[in-house]
Amino acid sequence: MAKFNPWHDVSRGDNVPQTVTGIIEIPKGSKAKYELDKDSGMLKLDRVLFSAVHYPAAYGFIPKTYCDDNDPLDILVLCSVEIVPMCLVEAKVIGVMQMVDGDEEDDKIIAVAAHDISVNHYNELDDLPPHTLREMQRFFEDYKALEHKSVTVQRFLPREEAYRIIDESIRLYNETFPNGNDHDQVLAKEELKG
């Protein structure tokens, strides 16, 4: 019997890359760093953040995507309510935050909950309240500081660049996992990489 894994078995959405499915791992305001256990498909507690910070938006990933850090593409989803972990959210893409975590590039797609009328009118990063991007940048530059790890936010880019990054992560996923949810294949490839 095949295992169900949200990364490999949930649709990316019907209007990719403009609107994608976000699978939320961490609710806004959390100090807990939850992440998908790639083998079981369950959510696990990776760590409690050392610094006095909390996630500025719901945080998760886009299914059936893959990046150079051996993980699916990350997504931050703005919403007026708390989104619980493992909830699927139709997310309208409005931009991307490019950062370097350690020595690895680590893009974060920025989106709004498509079915939340308090945020779904935002179409571009420039539409957001001015403090929103500063809060995201400050969080990601600070959240590993007490662990003596370096994170640098390089820049925020518009939605067209986010679309390109999403398309590239889909291409890389299709090349890396041509059999989709073959979990033994997934684990073997990750062990080879590192």
Automatic annotation (TrEMBL):
Pfam family, one: Pyrophosphatase
Residues where Mg(2+) 2 binds: D74
Recorded GO CC terms: cytoplasm
Necessary cofactors: Mg(2+)
Predominant place of localization: cytoplasm
Reaction it catalyzes: diphosphate + H2O = 2 phosphate + H(+)
Residues involved in Mg(2+) 1 binding: D69, D74, D106
Alphabetized PROSITE patterns for the sequence: PPASE (PS00387)
Enzyme Commission numbers on file: 3.6.1.1
Residues the entry annotates as binding substrate: K33, R47, Y59, Y143
Compartment annotation: Cytoplasm
Protein family according to the UniProt entry: Belongs to the PPase family.
Role description: Catalyzes the hydrolysis of inorganic pyrophosphate (PPi) forming two phosphate ions.
Subunit architecture: Homohexamer.
Protein name: Inorganic pyrophosphatase
Source organism: Hymenobacter actinosclerus
